[in-house]
Write a structure and sequence with these properties.
The complex is a heterodimer of chains A (about 300) and B (about 290).
Chain A: E1 8-10, E2 13-15, E3 19-21, E4 43-45, E5 62-65, E6 68-71, H1 80-92, E7 98-102, H2 107-118, E8 125-129, E9 133-134, E10 140-141, H3 146-157, E11 164-168, H4 175-184, E12 189-192, E13 196-199, E14 201-202, E15 207-208, E16 214-218, H5 223-236, E17 241-244, H6 250-259, E18 263-266, H7 269-272, H8 276-290
Helix pairs in contact in A: 2-3, 3-4, 4-5, 5-6, 6-8
Chain B: E1 5-16, E2 19-24, E3 38-41, E4 53-61, E5 66-72, H1 76-82, E6 89-96, H2 115-122, E7 129-136, H3 140-150, E8 156-164, H4 173-179, E9 184-189, E10 196-197, H5 200-209, E11 215-219, H6 222-235, E12 239-242, E13 258-262, E14 269-273, E15 280-282
Parallel strand pairs in B: 7-8, 7-11, 8-9, 9-10, 11-12
Antiparallel strand pairs in B: 1-2, 1-6, 2-5, 3-4, 3-6, 4-5, 12-15, 13-14
Helix pairs in contact in B: 5-6
Classes of the chains: A alpha/beta (about 300), B alpha/beta (about 290).
Chain lengths: ~300, ~290
């Protein structure tokens, strides 16, 4: 049997395979450790961290929609100090790169968090969540304004030596434009996409269901949108892409890879099947073997070939 | 590694209009599961509806190693589940969550300055211990499993209080009577079609004011649990409640199913995961929303 090369390199970060967990859907790894051998994952992207502990949004925080879920967790997390003291040592016992998803409400907060995280050992990369409201600019999301997205990217880059992955929001007119300015600002890689903004209404109460009114849509419902974003950004920006958004099966993952993603992240699928990451990984390997493709990297972006 | 396990449905019965009792051979030893814990599984096998649903274990048969859930058809997931037949499969994760603590429950509060609090502290725990199990509608589900465990414990006086919309929705009446002749059953309906005409919490209030209860286990609609909590605070008695929230992952990762619980400082709160820290919480730890 031919050995299949599943390794991936993203901004100097070497992964043993392309399957990563999507931030916010895998906690800090602990909750899924009974179900998944964490050592088998390409990387773990942990739940979004903020400088200080964050209580999160008032419930209800989740509502099921057709082939998807809308969530408004609101970045509930124990803060970077707790992460450094308790969670990172736990994750360090596994042989898996840890990508830290980071969030903030001001540019200064992102900068301070990046500086703090960069002093810690055993962090492989930072993933910058720019879908947070910018409190200084009246709550507009950093990610919806190319200039603000670039500013956050620069602030993080100036405060870390770690690879910086910027996670882009699909809730923009041209995601390629945001990708370009973020690339110019120094991003090393891109995560595509964050959730799609949505809302659901309770007919009995005649009010929005979610405590936060709006939520982020994820799951199979958004896969074509995410795939389109990967396709468009791959065409215009040369940065490595981690593709995500409704990936439930190896077939989904392979579509993202063919559209231009070097790696993929699995999110909502974990809720339906805690072993989804491993099943997807094995499915990718089987596909490569059946089609006599020795290196996964040979498949990246192939759907663009004429 | 733990995972979903495919199991067969051994029986499904509509025990009241819209209410089903579904038995299955669980992938775990029912002897080792706690009342209040839940199983998590999808009711269909397509992307819509997407998420698994949590169901409290309602009943176990240790000899056959069978478990049952009791559910009401409330949406598309449960409607799909109701169509399943004997020998159909379920993919089950569980048992999950933290279940009920068997008695005696610890005292919830610092003794009050008033004579009543101190007096109760000194006389607690009573022997025998007087337990009220309070259910609203399909909330009897985890409590029935609890009763299966409680009935074998020594020195307990157990009163079961069930409230429902109408007589048809008073679930598991004969099963509870069969559990033990020692269990006293008190029933209430909203429409007065059976038993006490009014909320089940009014019956509880009467028992509490007559000093006939030492601790309480409850499950039901949030408004009912809130009233139970208020009554227990008034009488300074311990209790546990089983909560229900929309879940995402079921294993504590996604932080979707949170409820407010008391924080470290006075008047502070934190969000606790119903799937992990719960679904059963000490009643005095929950911060009830208005």
């Amino acid at each position: 049997m031919v050995a299949i090369d599943l390794t991936v390199e993203i901004a100097g970060l070497k992964l043993k395979n392309p399957v990563i967990t999507a931030s916010g859907t895998f906690g800090f790894g602990q909750e899924y450790a009974p179900y998944v051998d964490l050592n088998r994952l390409g990387a773990i992207t942990v739940k979004g961290l903020t400088l200080l502990p964050h209580p999160g949004n008032p419930p209800p925080r989740l509502v099921e929609t057709p082939a998807g879920i809308l969530n408004a967790i609101g970045l509930q997390n124990p803060g970077v100090d707790y992460f450094a003291a308790i969670i990172l040592p736990y994750l360090s016992q596994f042989n898996v790169p840890v990508i830290v998803n980071m969030a903030g409400e001001t540019v200064e907060e992102y900068a301070a968090l990046a500086a703090k995280l960069s002093k810690l050992n055993n962090i492989a990369a930072l993933e910058v969540n720019i879908s947070c409201p910018n409190v200084k600019k009246g709550g507009l999301q950093f990610g919806s304004d190319p200039a603000a997205a670039a500013e956050v990217t620069r602030a993080v880059k100036n405060n870390t030596c770690l690879p910086v992955i910027v996670k882009l929001s699909p809730n923009v007119t041209r995601i390629e434009t945001v990708a370009q300015v973020v690339a110019q600002a120094g991003a090393d890689a891109l995560s595509l996409i964050n959730t799609v903004l949505g809302i659901a209404i309770d007919l009995k109460k005649r009010r929005p269901i979610l405590g936060n009114i709006f939520g982020g849509l994820s799951g199979p419902a958004i896969k074509p949108i995410a795939l389109r974003a990967v396709w468009q950004v791959f065409k215009e920006v040369s940065l490595p892409i981690i593709g995500m958004g409704g990936i439930f099966t190896a077939q989904d993952a392979l579509e993202f890879i063919m559209a231009g993603a070097k790696a993929v992240a699995v999110g909502t699928a974990n809720f339906i099947n805690p072993r989804a990451t491993i099943d997807i990984l094995e499915g990718i390997e089987n596909y490569l073997r059946e089609n006599k493709i020795e290196r996964l990297s040979d498949l990246v972006g192939t759907a663009h070939c004429k | 590694m733990a995972s979903y396990n495919t199991v067969n449905i051994t029986r499904q019965e509509e025990i009241a209009p819209g209410f089903y009792l579904l038995s299955f051979k669980p992938p775990f030893l029912v002897r080792q599961s706690q009342p209040g814990q839940f199983v998590y599984f999808r009711c269909g096998n397509t992307y819509d509806p997407l998420l698994p649903r949590p169901f409290s274990i309602a009943m176990v048969n240790e000899e056959k190693n069978e478990a049952a859930i009791l559910y009401q058809v409330v949406g598309r997931g449960t409607a799909l589940l109701a169509q399943k037949k004997e020998l159909n499969c379920l993919n089950i994760l569980g048992p999950l969550g933290r279940g009920f603590t068997l008695p005696p429950l610890g005292r919830p509060f610092q003794p009050k300055r008033g004579p009543k609090g101190l007096e109760q502290l000194e006389s607690f725990p009573q022997s025998p211990l007087r337990i009220a199990v309070v259910a609203g509608g399909v909330g009897i589900a985890p409590l029935f499993f609890l009763l299966q465990r409680l009935k074998d414990l020594p020195n307990l006086i157990i009163e079961v209080l069930i409230g429902a919309r109408n007589t048809k929705q008073l679930l598991l009446k004969p099963e509870i009577k069969n559990l033990s002749p020692q269990i006293k059953l008190r029933l209430a309906t909203d429409d007065g079609s059976y038993g006490y005409h009014g909320p089940v919490t009014e019956m509880l209030s009467t028992l509490l004011s007559a000093n006939k209860v030492d601790q309480v286990y409850a499950c039901g609609p949030e408004a009912m649990l809130k009233t139970v909590a208020r009554l227990l605070a008034k009488y300074n008695l311990p209790g546990e409640v089983s909560l229900e929230k929309q879940m995402g992952c079921g294993v504590g990762a996604c932080l979707s199913c949170v409820c407010k619980t008391k924080g470290d400082k006075e008047n502070s709160f934190r969000y606790s995961r119903v799937c992990k820290e719960g679904p059963v919480f000490p009643v005095h730890e929950v911060v009830w929303e208005d």
